[in-house]
Amino acid sequence: MSIDKTSATPEDQHIVENPEAAAGADVAVDPRLLVRERGLAGYLDEFKRKMRAGDLGSMPVVVGLIIICAIFQSLNSAFLSAENLNNIAVAMVATGMMSVGIIFVLLLGEIDLSVGSVSGVAGAVTAVLSVTHGMNEWLAVIIAIASGAAIGAIHGFFFAKIGAPAFAVTLAGLLFWLGFMLQILGENGTINLDGDGVVGKLTTYYFTDVAAAYALAVVAVAGFFLSSYLDSRRRQAAGVPSRPLVDILVRTGALAIVAFAAAVMFNQYKGLPLALLLFVVFLVGTDFLLRRTAYGRKIFALGGSVEASRRAGINVTAIRISVFSIAGTFAAIGGLFWASKIAAANQGSGTGDLLMNVIAAAVIGGTSLFGGRGRTWNALLGVMVITSIQYGLALQGIATPIQYMITGGVLLATVVIDSVTRKTQKTAGRA
Asked: What is this structure's pTM?
């Protein structure tokens, strides 16, 4: 006689046909049900359990970032200076923005190779419309971002609706949109932008008032605490495991140290960069979208199993198209930051090692190449690692080829760690 497990009552679930065998069996405990009742010892036990289960989280990249900073600071005391750290914070935003979009695609277990070319198209469209044709720059920026979203949706259509592999579709997009960018830029190949315009100020404007950096730190810390506390209260009311108040306070305190240290550093140089503020706003918004909305849960579900998602009633085609559209949108936004950095749109926009750095930032930050695991905050951690390496090596006068090799080595190490942890999680029954 078969038993429908989905409709079994709680009484049915406690029936054991072989109590002798069950008595000697190991009981699998849901990690979320572990209650920290023993203070520091409890946290240490939980940490050990996560390590055994391959649940490393962001720990490898955080440790790696600390090591990178320690090495470069020992080699050159200027590495951790306010000026250099401020420059790193601004320089990483363009790649970081594009990496946010790539994370959405990676969560599906797919890849988008066109984001570099799409970023170049966005810068070129803005320059042609605002400079060559005299259009209002705000309107030109909106059109450029909308163009990125439309391009991403086109790629998503061929992938999700037609069934072409995402790799092939976006590789074709890389070539097509690169040619399109060169075509609209014309024979000169370079269009200079107004340094005091909308795009120009993206990477050059600083909030010089010291209150701005401290206000951002306060908002970040308070927002994190309130979000964590309210989430804990909701979970308690629902009768499910939640973080204890002490845990929330410890995490909030750690964030406060980092946030206010950053505020002090920014105020020692030019102030809070507008570019970094916008990056943080986008990170918070996309993190909320992925973790707190039904749409975000559908993306994670697709990354876990397409067939299971389809049977659960998820519109797989629509989600896939929208995700590639999001990737195109963030590629365009990143392209505007790149155009701002060089105050121009030229034939080199979106080319070179940009695509590899964008993908590397997402993966190094902790997003899995296999889909279903990652957060948009991974873009921040990953791009901090890449940009820190680039600036640290530049301070030492090390040539670009060596920078490529070191970045490639870091990426390989990250992929290896991701693969090993997936195997460990499968062994532990968590993958």
From this structure: 0.84
